[in-house]
Amino acid sequence: MRASEKLELLEKLVSIPVYRVVGYTSGWLVYSSTRGGVESLWAVNPETGEEKLVAQGPVHGYAKPRHPSTIIVYLRDVARGRELHKVFAVDLHGGEERVFADAPPMRVFGLAYDGVRLAFSGATMKGMGLYLARKDGGYEELMKLETMLFPTDVSEKYVVGSGMMRKDPRSMEIFVYDLDSNMVETYTPREGSVNKAPRLFGSKILFESDYEGSSKLYVYDLEEENLEAPSMKGSDYREYSPTEHVDYGWTIDGRIWAIGIREGRSKAFIDGYAVPSPEGFVGSMDVSPRGEAYYSFSRLTEPPKIYAARDGEARILVDNKLPEEISGRIGEARHIWYRSSDGLRIPGFIVESRGAPKPGPTIIYVHGGPWGAVTDSWSILIAGLVISGYHIVAPNFRGSTGYGEKFRLMDIGDPGGGDLEDVIAARNLAVKEGLASKTIIMGYSYGGYMTYLALGRKPEAWDAGVAGAGIVDWEEMYGLSDAIFRKFIEVLFDGYNPDLLRDRSPVKYVDNVKAPLCIIHPQNDTRTPLKPVLKYVSRLLEQGKTFEVHVLPDAGHRIATMSDVVRILFPAVLFLDKYVGGED
Ligand code: 4NP
User: Fold this and answer.
1) Is the C-beta atom of 489 inside 6 A of ligand 1?
2) What is the CB neighbour count within 10 angstroms for residue 225?
């Protein structure tokens, strides 16, 4: 296939919208869509199918709406990708968008709205705070934050959320800010356990905790100080026995809905009864007061659709189809388990390309986070590589989410250690199984970090590498980071440890790099800044390595437009076609 045809295929791919359910309110289901090339907020009337644009993107995050309020709250980046946000609101029924909280631009990393007030946390270069805003545009700082803390719900009486209240990177506690007394309390069912994302119903919170071993849902009454297992009528949820939860909440009459995850796939439940969905990934959901469930659903091989389900029946509310020239190039996707060098069982996914021979060129695709995962859900980057003629092996290395807290916490104090071994083992598996003729490592963000590190520490393992928005120097990056990302690095490295930061930095191993390297980096990235990467590039140049560098102008870490997706994928594919010959 010629390069121009590949570009055409990629442009077709990014024109397929990505949908997510935002929430139900007042007769409308609000959802996000990349229709038109940027993520915008839309609403659909589930009765009539009527659709309307709520907020033209780029939108950089949003709060779940609260029935029956018609005010939709969301973030915009006001700094060309630097992730400095302002909070905006618009009425679902129309009218001008306005600033909801007139705070100085900051990186907002937690957002909860109850129809009247908004709790949010934000970071600047100097510090972090927890804030409360009301409809009139005013806002107040509730407290300064010394630790990572994410508000997840708010009411007249409380702001609740989870955070590292004990400053132990391996535990998370629930915080409860009392709006009457302005006192904050910490709650944990057991010291050292991981407790996440409380949702309020009156004086009760629903949250996920691993205090008894595996991650389960619990209900705690803040007034009665009573902890219990949630009551659910149906037995489907228990039988499914999720490893973790994608999301959960209360219905208006106090029943519990939840999306459970198992081995990279997920399923929705209301009051313990399964919500009908195909086998794949339910990514987001909400439930109307009448008990209708709305959820987004996708697979690695199928773009997102929005379904409505009630009384055991599901129907498609917002449809999505792959054109034949794209679907015909995507092969089978399957979940795998394999052994790492130390014997640990590592999960992951394989997606085969119908545009590549077998064995053929294979990309070991390393996800970001590192607290994230590749699931059986639509990923434009993976789909773009597959249709361009590359098989994908996506390891969910130690530290990935969705396989229990024990597994997630294994990378703390050891980034670029055990997880790198897991990535190398995935590469060896791809060769041994007869999938890979050539092996490529590629990833974005933490995945870009692993790409640089793997090329420097295991140079013999790779035929090429593509590093997107990667990390090359943890120490220098720490100095350039804002308050939340300094904290993030301290958590990941189990404290500020300069020796470990240096040892795990790819810049230390740059002279060992053998394989051709393609570097793609957003100019205005404030999470993984460009500056250290330019130094790394100088070193590659001095050493006469084979490399290319693409700086994405006016772009930030978060890939905000579909044209930026093409500006990442197309250079990567051209580079790979040249060096590992993904031609068919
Ligand atoms: P991500 O980017 O993979 O997109 O989450 C990262 C940004 C910063 C850090 C790690 C990953 N950090 O450790 O600071």
Assistant:
1) yes
2) 8
